[in-house]
Design a protein that fits this description.
heterodimer, A: about 550 residues, alpha/beta, five-stranded mixed β-sheet, 14 strands, B: about 625 residues, alpha+beta, 3 domains, about 30% strand, transmembrane helix (chain B), transmembrane (chain B), signal (chain B), membrane (chain B)
Chain lengths: ~550, ~625
């Protein structure tokens, strides 16, 4: 092996001779002028070379085994484990199939046991034929005759049918209890052998029409959420769906407590006082009492003089109604505390509404056509009261019409169905609300799961995981007890927990740590430190490769020799 | 004649209309008191007061009482509330005593104190948080920034004004935001609380442009329960706006708001001076020719009266000597008071009201005697107070308050309260009061020690906790007649954390005004400190304030100006500088050590050649070789 090489051969020649790579490559210039010869350093001891390799290796080991894990540990964002798949299942409706088994008891004291059983079987059959929505199922049962003597209504069943013999076939609702009285002429009773009966068909038809609205509403709710289609009812006609969607957008989000604010706005200085308390007590309190199992209500009232409405026209068009409320000046701020506020505004002025009552306003106010009032979805009602200009005080009689309107609007704002007797409507409302809450909580869970998937850098504190597990537990319970009062309570808790988990404050803060900041923090340190480390590693690798080649050459040379 | 008849009809009709609600008419009243001050200033005090019975309030039936505020009070368990928005400085030297004896004003910024019903301190803190957050939304002010560091529980300075059945479970909390800039967005919600909404009555004169252009202004809301001896307890809300307008400034038309020097011939000159000539002018006293009208000053006339107001309270009053004539709109009745220094006007309900105060005529004998006789001379306040920083540098400082008792024969006893931010760490041992006898200040003799020690009678001090609460210092002091007292103490400025500096940190940090409550000598309120503060207070009702409700132990309240404390502020790009600096240092050290460990050292002539010459040579060689190849290729 030669270390010195002929100078005139130049660099190209040196490349050919592998062994000469250490020899000064800059020792020659292209014009071939000889440079003074440079001394070579003495050959390194192999132990030194090995030590250098160890040093570099240990630095890299420290970086990889200690630095990286520490960096990883200190900069990762805490993400609690969420049962993402399960949450998505809830949102897709795979986890729960909302089923409302409704039990209806039949009291037929005038009939023989045998006859009654037969009638029940036939009616159930007729009902099953009519029903096309498996989620909403009516099941008939026979009330024990002894029990029916002392109490009218069995609390396990949603409706009691009292069959009474009479002249003609009639049906009427009891106004105070969920009881349907059906009279029948004796000849309509089915014979034990017959497979059909006009009375059974009649009863089935009555039941069907009674629960038609509830069924439609629930199936609408299911269809607007992503419930798999096999659970959906089929024939929901577009106009029914349309009116249902209007009704649901109009009604407020469910809350256990609503705050009612009654405001008297007058365009001038008068009237400045009103007997609102008496009027509420007289005209509205009965309905509030009826609603009390589902909602609590708190009430306050105010009088505001010199109020300028948002629209000054004498005659209000349909477009003006939406901007009539002067939000900038009228003190209609929502109440503090958690309860949503429903506003009932009496405006004493001489403005009138031009449009004839449309379909909306006619069906929203059950008691009277409403030429003076209109309902503002999810907000409340405005009633225009025209008074003689010198009225200083509004008596409770003068407030009768406004308050009756407010009452009926309150029912539609709370999402109350419109047909049937009041007790029946109430129990229907409870079922609709629990279905609604269930679906809402499920979809919130789904949104949270999608959020967690979509934003990998968002932190998920353990309180969120906690909320999610609570939500799911209550959802499961609610799903099992749908249609019963506990179902509503569980759904309520589930919804509240889901909302709390979704709107967790500490999740948002971490979201906006931009990448530029990370670069600005890391680069000044990592750049200068990484350069010698990487260069050292590269040099060492190069030297190692050269040593191997040399060793191979030496071995080859020995072989040749 | 016809006018007279129509007027008659009007008043008759109004009588007929209001008779049904006459019983409740006393539930609301409003009054504007105008008071010309020396140096071309005008004090306008608006007062609106409405009552609601406690039972109606608890049922949530609001008529005159604003619902939005009522809900907040119910929600936060507040029994008595005082909210102040203040701007500017009251020039006591020339304007005299403050309106309402200082009871309806706050320091610059926002001040809030309230008595909350709570069983424990923690519950009170929670309710206080609710209250400040809700009020912050209602009044568009940053009241939600009143946190633990800005909240104190004064021991001596405040006493409830209302009648409370029990005081044992009431907690007084006091918060102040000196940095808050009071502006139009605070006035709008204030007006919304009024029953007549600023559409009629004296509130029509309130306009953000004029109000916030004033030399000094204060908006106050006071809510307190008042239990009359006979009848039901009522909850009273009193809204007060006081402002001192500069007449010259206010009269400037809106279209031409830039002040320009008047031409020479319009300058008001004192012609009695011997050197007065066409090119020399000694400015005449402003007050001598104060003439203005209501619509000039406020930009518009007043629109009628609020129909709900108590008919026995005249809506507008003015304090000028009876000798001066005041012109008013038609149909307005003038009632002069017996004292001869004020007159009030009864205004028909639906007519614009304007008032002109003309320049006192030359022939008027009263006006010519002294220039000040054109206005009612202002009262002398019980105490003058000034506060300022002393010392220099970024590390330490001092506060000096100069308290001057102008009265020649009566000592003044008062409570001086400071609520300081936690980053001003005061040294209580340096607190010192020294008296300088005589108001002139020429006799700078240090007072005798026994006299000096009797100045400070009682000190309540609650030291600050870093980042948790501020310093609270209450000092009961006594200033001898015709003496000036210097109250001084030193403090240390602490260094804040990087994130604790507000935007524009170099401006400095506002330090809230000191509250000075002068005790009523006839009614020594909190002398028996921890006992029931309201005991024995029932009999004294301050008739001087003219307001029926409430009673107080304080004869007079005043506040000093706020201070601007400059703390050492860092360079705010500091974190990145620090990161880069330390990173560079670490990288240098690491690179050096690493290279020493890894490189092999050889003699200079043994290693590969290095340096600039080698680089240049290599470059040259490459170029020449490239050229030579090109030549070869051609040949």
């Amino acid at each position: 092996m030669t270390i010195q090489q002929p100078l005139d051969k130049g660099a190209a020649a040196a490349d050919l001779q592998n062994s000469a790579a250490v020899a000064a490559p800059a020792a020659t210039t292209s014009n071939g002028l000889p440079l003074p010869a440079r001394k070579e350093p003495p050959p390194e001891k192999p132990s030194d070379v090995r030590r250098r390799s160890y040093i570099i290796l240990s630095f890299w080991l420290i970086v990889l085994c200690l630095g990286l894990p520490i960096w990883w540990k200190t900069t990762t964002i805490y993400r609690a484990d969420l049962p993402l798949q399960e949450m998505l299942d809830w949102a897709d409706g795979k986890a729960c199939r909302p089923v409302f088994p409704l039990r209806i008891s039949i009291q037929a004291n005038a009939l023989q046991e045998q006859e009654a059983q037969n009638l029940l079987r036939l009616t159930q059959h007729a009902l099953d034929d009519l029903n096309d929505f498996s989620g909403h199922h009516l099941r008939l049962q026979l009330a024990p005759p002894a029990a029916s003597e002392n109490r009218d209504h069995d609390h396990d069943s949603v409706l009691t049918i009292r069959l009474l013999p009479g002249e003609t076939t009639t049906a009427s609702f009891d106004p105070h209890a969920p009881v349907l009285d059906i009279t029948y002429p004796p000849n309509t009773l089915p014979s034990p052998t017959s497979s059909s009966s006009s009375l059974a068909t009649y009863v089935a038809g009555q039941l069907r029409s009674t629960f038609a609205e509830e069924q439609a509403t629930i199936s609408y709710l299911l269809s607007t959420n992503s419930i798999p289609s096999e659970h959906r009812p089929q024939g929901l006609s577009p106009d029914v769906a349309d009116s249902l969607s209007k009704r649901t957008t109009r009604s407020l989000k469910y809350a256990p407590t609503y705050h009612l604010t009654f405001s008297l706005f007058t365009s001038g200085p008068l009237p400045s006082s009103w007997d609102i308390e008496d009027a509420i007590h007289q005209y509205m309190k009965p309905v509030l009492d009826v609603l009390s199992p589902i909602h609590n209500f708190t009430i306050d009232t105010q009088v505001q003089l010199y109020a300028t409405p948002g629209v000054q026209n004498q005659v209000l068009n349909k477009e003006d109604l939406s901007s009539f409320i002067n939000a900038a000046e009228w003190p209609l701020s929502p109440s503090i505390g958690g309860a949503p506020t429903i506003n009932f505004v009496v405006f004493a002025g001489n403005q009138t509404i031009a449009v004839p009552p449309t379909q909306d306003s006619a069906d929203s106010s059950g008691t009277a056509p409403a030429p003076h009032s209109w309902l503002i979805p999810q907000w409340g009602t405005v009633y225009l009261l025209s008074l003689p200009s010198d009225t200083a005080h509004l008596s409770s009689e003068a407030l009768k019409q406004p308050l009756l309107t407010f009452t009926s609007h309150l029912l539609s704002l709370t999402g109350m169905p419109q047909s049937g007797s009041l007790p029946l409507r109430l129990s229907t409302l409870a079922r609709i609300r629990s279905a609604d809450l269930l679906l809402r909580a499920s979809s919130t869970l789904g949104s949270l799961a999608r959020l967690a998937l979509a934003l990998p850098s968002i932190s998920i504190p353990s309180s969120v995981a906690d909320g999610v597990s609570k939500t799911m537990a209550h959802l499961r319970l609610a799903c099992e007890t749908l249609g019963r009062p506990e179902g509503l309570a569980h759904a309520r808790v589930a919804e509240a927990e889901a909302e709390r988990a979704f709107f967790e404050k500490s999740m948002v803060g971490q979201l906006y740590f931009p990448d530029e900041h990370k670069i600005a923090v890391y680069l000044p340190l990592l750049g200068p430190v990484a350069v010698p480390l990487v260069m050292g590693l590269l040099n060492e690798l190069k030297a190692w490769r050269k040593r191997r080649r040399e060793a191979a050459e030496v071995a080859q040379g020995k072989k040749k020799e | 004649m016809r006018q007279f008849l129509s007027l008659f009809w009007l008043s008759f009709l109004s009588l007929v209309f209001f008779s049904p609600s006459a019983a409740s008419a006393a539930d609301y009243h409003e009054q504007l008191v105008l008071r010309p001050l020396p140096q071309s200033a005008l004090l306008a005090s608006f007062n609106f007061r409405s009552n609601t019975t406690v039972s109606e309030f608890e049922k949530g039936n609001f008529r005159f009482f604003p619902r939005s505020l009522g809900q907040i009070l119910q929600h936060a368990g507040t029994r008595e509330l005082h909210l102040r928005f203040g701007l500017g400085r009251w020039d006591a030297e020339s304007w005299g005593a403050r309106p309402w004896d200082g009871a309806r004003e706050g320091g610059t910024g926002v001040e809030l104190w309230a008595w909350l019903e709570a069983d424990t301190d923690e519950e009170a803190d929670r309710k206080w948080l609710t209250l400040t957050n809700a009020l912050s939304g209602l009044f568009c002010a940053s009241l939600n920034f009143i946190d633990g560091t800005r909240t104190t529980r004064p021991v001596m300075s405040f006493q409830p004004e209302g009648d409370h059945a029990t005081v044992s479970n009431l907690h007084l909390l006091y918060g102040v935001l000196p940095h808050e800039v009071v502006c139009t967005e605070n006035l709008t919600p204030f007006l919304k609380l009024l029953p007549c909404k600023g559409k009629v009555g004296i509130a029509t004169l309130l306009d953000g442009h004029k109000l916030f252009d004033a030399s000094w202004q204060s908006m106050a809301i006071d809510i307190r329960p008042v239990c009359p001896a006979d009848g039901e307890c009522v909850l009273q809300i009193e809204q007060t706006i006081d402002m001192v307008l500069d007449i010259e400034r206010s009269k400037r038309p809106r279209g031409n708001p830039i002040p320009r020097p008047p031409p020479g011939h319009e300058l008001p000159c004192d012609t009695s001076k011997p050197y007065h000539s066409h090119d020399t002018c000694f400015p005449a006293d402003h007050t001598a020719n104060q003439d203005w009208s209501l619509s000039q000053i406020f930009g518009k006339p007043m629109k009628g009266t609020c129909p709900l107001t108590d008919p026995t309270v005249p809506p507008v009053c003015i304090h000028v000597p009876d000798t001066r004539s005041v012109f008013v709109s038609e149909g307005v009745r003038e009632n002069k008071s017996a004292s001869g220094a004020s007159r009030c006007f009864e205004i028909p309900p639906s007519a614009d009201f304007d008032m002109v105060l003309p320049r006192p005529s030359e022939s008027d004998p009263a006006a010519n005697q002294t220039p000040d006789s054109a206005i009612v001379p202002p009262e002398t306040p019980l105490l003058y107070a000034e506060r300022s920083f002393t010392g220099h540098g970024q590390e330490r400082g001092g506060v000096q308050t100069i308290l001057r008792n102008p009265s020649p024969d009566a000592a003044v006893e008062f409570i001086y309260m400071e609520s300081l931010p936690w980053f001003m760490r005061i040294y209580l041992h340096t607190m010192e009061a020294r008296v300088v006898a005589g108001a002139g200040g020429s006799a700078h003799a240090r007072a005798r020690p026994d006299e000096s020690s009797s100045l400070i009678q009682q000190v309540f001090y609650r030291p600050a906790v870093d980042r948790a609460r501020g310093t609270q210092l209450e000092v009961r002091m006594r200033v001898p007649p015709a003496a000036t007292v210097f109250l001084t103490y030193d403090f240390e400025k602490s260094i804040l954390r990087y994130t604790e500096y507000p935007p524009d940190a170099n401006r400095g940090f506002d330090v809230a005004a000191a509250v000075i409550t002068i005790l009523d000598p006839d009614h020594p309120g909190p002398r028996s400190d921890q006992g029931s503060p309201a005991a024995g207070a029932g009999t004294s009702s301050s008739s001087s304030r003219g307001s029926g409700g409430g009673r107080r132990f304080a004869a007079y309240t005043l506040r000093t100006t706020t201070l601007l404390c400059s703390l050492p502020t860092p360079d705010f790009s500091m974190p990145y500088n620090v990161i880069i600096f330390t990173s560079t240092a670490i990288a240098l050290a690491f690179g050096g050590v690493f290279n020493i460990l890894v490189r092999r050292f050889v003699a200079a002539d043994e290693g590969p050649e290095a340096g600039l010459a080698v680089l240049v040579g290599r470059l040259k060689g490459r170029l020449l070789r490239g050229a030579g190849q090109a030549v070869k290729g051609k040949s």
